[in-house]
Amino acid sequence: MLELTDAARITAGIVLLTVVGIESGGAFLVKVVTRRVPATGFQTSFFRAGHAHAGVLVVLGLVCLLLAEATDLTGFWRWLAATGVLVAAILLPAGFFLSAVGSGREAPNRAVVLLPAGGLVLASGVVTLAIGLFLG
Predict the structure, then answer these.
(1) Tens digit of pLDDT for each residue in 33-74?
(2) Is the pTM value of this prediction over 0.85?
C-alpha cells in the first residue's frame, strides 16, 4: 500500500480541487473558439496554451508529488522535487492567460515574464526529483 506523508496527502487533495478551476478555463475557451467571447488569434492561441499547460502540469505535478515520497530528499530539495511542477502549473498558465488579457491584444503584455519563470521552476523541479530518485 502506498503511504503518503500528511503534507503530500493534503497537497494532493488541494490540487485535485483545482481541476474545477481548469474546467472553468475550458468552458471559457469553448466560448472563445465558438466566438461567443471576442478574441484575437494571438489571444486564442495563448488561452489554449494556458489551458493545456494547466491540465498537463497538474497531472504531472501529482505524479511528481507521489514520486517524491520515494526519495530521501529533505528540506528545500524535497519541497522542490515534490511541488516544483505544481508551482509551474500556476506560473505557466497564469503567464499565458494574463499576458493575453485586454481587448484586441495582438502581443503579450509584461505578464509574459511568468513564462520563463514557470519554465525554470518546472525544469528545476523535475531535475531535482530525478536526482532524488537516482540517489534513492
Answers:
(1) 999 999 999 999 999 999 999 999 999 999 999 999 999 999
(2) yes
SS (H, E, C) 85-100: HHHHHHHHHHHHHHHC
Question: DSSP readout, 113-127?
Answer: GHHHHHHHHHHHHHH
Q: Would you state the CATH architecture of domain 6-135?
A: Orthogonal Bundle (1.10)
Pairwise CA distance, residues 78 & 131, whole Å: 11
- The grid cell for 30 is 469553448
Query: For residue 115, how many C-alpha atoms fall within 13 Å in the half-sphere facing its CB?
Result: 15
Domain ranges of the chain: 6-135
